[in-house]
User: Which sequence fits this backbone?
């Protein structure tokens, strides 16, 4: 197993686990149980996605494509959360 990515939070981790699974890559989330210790433990590096050695390269490519993606033009919402329009 290789640790291939450190998601920012649990939501991103779960999203990436689902995306990888849909592409046939079995991944495990390391550190899920440590989230409750935030404040006592360092905030960064708790979560990590790990895959089998033979799927590591493909999984990294998928995650890189996910991180490089942007919305289609015209697909952006009219307003954004936490933005006050006056």
Assistant:
């Amino acid at each position: 197993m290789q640790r291939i990515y450190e998601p920012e939070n649990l939501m991103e981790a779960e999203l990436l686990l689902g995306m990888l699974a849909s592409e046939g890559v079995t991944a495990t989330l390391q550190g899920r149980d440590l989230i409750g210790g935030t404040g006592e433990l360092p905030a960064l590096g708790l979560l990590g996605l790990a895959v089998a050695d033979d799927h590591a390269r493909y999984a990294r490519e998928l995650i890189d494509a996910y991180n490089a993606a942007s919305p289609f033009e015209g697909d952006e919402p009219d307003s954004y959360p936490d933005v006050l329009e006056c």
Summary: The mean pLDDT is 82. Helices lie at 10-22, 56-68.
